[in-house]
Amino acid sequence: MLAAIHSTLSGSSSTRPDPAEYQPVIPSNAVNADPADPATLDYIDRELGHAAARDVIEYENVKVYFCFWVLGAGVLMSWNALICTFPLLISYLPLDSNLRGNLSSILSTVYCFGNLFFLGMAQRHVGKVSPTKRLHSSLVVLLITALLTTYPALPVLFPILSSSLLLTVLIFISLVLSFSTAYLQSSVFALSSLWGSEQTLGVMSGQGGIAVLVSGVQFALAFVSAVAKSDDGQGDEGEEASKLAGVGLWAACSLGVVGCFMASRYLKRHPKYLDVVAPKFATSELNSVEGNKRESGTTRKLFKKNWELNLAVAWVFVVTLSVFPPITTRILSTHQPTPRLLQPDVFMPLHFVIFNIGDYIGRTYLASYSALRLTSPRRILFLSLGRTLFIPLFFACNVTPREVGNTPFINFDILYFLIILLFSMSNGYLGSLCMVISSSPDLNPRIKADERDVAATLASFCLVAGLAAGSLASFAVGAAVNRAL
C-alpha cells in the first residue's frame, strides 16, 4: 500500500521530504482506499514522519470542500447570470414599453416559482435516487441552455424580437433554467449533508462566491465602458460593450458548468462516496416502494421538527427578493449633477458587487465563526424576522422616478451602500446558519443521522419558497414605493 510514496522516499536520506516537493495525494494503487483509514494513516506516519497523516487528511478535506464550493457556485450560476443581464434585456425593449419597469420582477417570479415547483417534484425522490445521477442530468440541461443563450440568443436573436415575443422566449428560458437548477440544488444539498456540515457550508459559500465573480466581471466591464464613453462620447460603443459583457457572463456560466462536471466526477470517485453515500442509495433503490412511504413520512416529521429554521430561511429570502433587485435597481445616485462613473450603467453594477461581497462574507466567514454560530432555532427565527426593517430603509433611499424637489430621506450614496452591505451580510449569515443547522445532528439534536439528506433538501425547498414569495412580494413593494413617491 502506498507504494508510490515509498518509492519516492527510497532515493532520499531524509525521513520526510521537503514540503515543497511533497504532494499528499492518494497513490494510484490505493485510489479506492479511504485516506482516513487507520492503517493508511499509520503507514504515512511511519514513512513520512509524525503528523504527516494529518496533512494528508487536511489536503483531502480541502479538495472535497472545494468541489462542494464549485457545485454550490453551479447552483446559483444561471440565476446570477440572469439577473446581471436584466439591464441589457431591458435595453432591448422599446422606450415606451410597459415591460421596461416590470421585466425584472416578471422573470424573477417565473424563475423562482418554477424553481419552487420543480424542487417540490425533486423533493419527492430524495433519499431514494442517487444524487449524482440527477446532478449529471441537470448539468447537461444547464450547459445546453447556457451555450444557446451565449450564442446566438443574447447577441443576435433577442435584439430583433418584438416585445411580446422576447418576453415569451425569456419566460421559457427562465423555466428551463429553474428546472435544471432545482434538480441540481436538490442533488447538491443531499450530497453535502451526507458528507457533513462543513461541506454544506462550502455549498453556501460557493453560491455567494459565484455571485461575487459574476457581478465583479459585470462591474469591471461597465466601468471600462463608462470610461470609454466619457473619452469619446460614443454611445454605440457602450451598447456593444454592454452586449459583450452579457455574452461574456453566459460564456463564463458555461465554463462553470464544465467545472461542476469535474467536481462531481471527483466526488463520485472519492472513498467516502463509495463507503457512505453509494450504499445508502443502493439500499433505497432495492426497497423503493417501502422507501416512498418512509421518506414521505420523514419529510412531514422533519418539517415539524425544524419549523423555526425552515420559516427563518424562507423569510430571509422573502425580505431579500422583495427589494433586491427589483427595487434596488431603481435607486440611483443622489449626486447632482451625476458624475459619469456614478450614472446608472455603473451605479447599478456597483450595487450588485457590494451586495454580493457582503453576502459572501456572511455565508463564508460569519456563519463559520464559532462565536457567531447560533444554534437556537428561535433566536435565528427572531433575527430573520428582524430583517423586515430593511424594507422601509430602502424606501427612504433615492428610489426613482421621483418628483422634482422630492428629496429622499437618505440622501447620501455612501449610506445607501452601507445599508446594502449590512442587508447582504445578514442575508448570507442567516441563510447559511439555517441550512447548516437544519441538517446537522451535531448542531441540531432534533434530527437523526439518517435524516440529514431529507432535512437538507427540505430546508433548500423552504429557501426557494422564500425566493418565490419574495419575488411575488416585489410587485406589492414596488406598488407601495410608487404610491409613496
Defining key terms:
485 residues, mainly alpha, Growth Hormone, Chain: A, 74% helix
Brief write-up:
Its main location: membrane. With 485 residues, the protein is mainly alpha-helical.
Question: Can you give a write-up of this model?
Answer:
- This protein has 485 residues and is mainly alpha-helical.
- It has helices at 3-9, 38-48, 52-84, 86-91, 103-123, 131-157, 163-195, 197-232, 235-269, 271-286, 288-305, 307-323, 344-366, 377-386, 390-395, 413-438, 452-484.
- The protein starts with a helix and ends with a helix.
- The protein has 2 domains: 3-50, no CATH class; 54-484, MFS general substrate transporter like domains (Growth Hormone, Chain: A), CATH 1.20.1250.20.
- Helices cover 74% and strands 0% of the residues.
- It is found in: Membrane.
- Its main location: membrane.
- The chain crosses the membrane at residues 64-90, 102-122, 134-154, 160-180, 201-224, 244-263, 309-327, 347-368, 380-402, 414-437, 458-481.
- GO terms for molecular function: nicotinamide riboside transmembrane transporter activity; nucleobase transmembrane transporter activity.
